[in-house]
Write a structure and sequence with these properties.
This protein is α/β, with parallel strands linked by helices. It is 26% helix and 27% strand. The protein has a three-stranded mixed β-sheet with strand order 1-2-3. A three-stranded mixed β-sheet has the order 4-5-6. It starts with a helix and ends in a 7-residue tail after the last strand. The model has no long low-confidence stretch (mean pLDDT 88).
Length: 147
């Protein structure tokens, strides 16, 4: 996705399928898929970006119809998130971390820690970096379950 983000216009920030719940709660009813949502840093590049992400012209792309996707603004491109994530991991930002990844819907990097004291220690560790606002989220997720 980072490579795709570097190639597509508009600062591709990722995509996901958004579901709407059934209009009436029915036991066993499944949510209905309604739309593909694409994040772009520059939403004025919508048409060009969606054409670049289109599967028919690029069979190696997402097997989704993105041409009619809903576009939402993103603060960061996926490539920026990927690169920052790598920088933080290479710098040894792992004290107390039990999970980490890129949160496409939240358009940020997320680190999971065991508890509140671990969160405080990790946030203190992050202060040694000059990180842009809203780039990193720290969540209490509990212990990692081997699996």
């Amino acid at each position: 996705m980072a490579d795709l983000s570097r190639q597509a216009p508009g600062g591709f920030g990722g995509l996901f399928i958004e579901h709407d719940e059934p209009p009436e709660p029915v036991a066993g009813a499944r949510a209905h898929t309604r739309r593909v949502v694409v994040f772009l840093v520059d939403t004025t590049e919508r048409d060009a970006a969606l054409r670049a992400l289109e599967t028919r012209s690029h069979p190696d792309r997402f097997p989704l119809n993105v041409v009619g996707a809903q576009v939402r603004p993103a603060r960061w491109s996926y490539a920026e998130l990927y690169d920052w994530h790598g920088v933080l991991l290479e710098a040894g930002v792992r004290e107390g971390v039990v999970s980490t990844g890129i949160d496409v819907k939240g358009n940020r990097i997320v680190f999971g820690v065991v508890d509140a004291p671990g969160r405080q220690r990790f946030e203190n560790e992050l202060t040694r970096f000059d990180l842009p606002c809203f780039l990193v989220g720290v969540e209490i997720v509990g212990r990692r379950v081997p699996g």
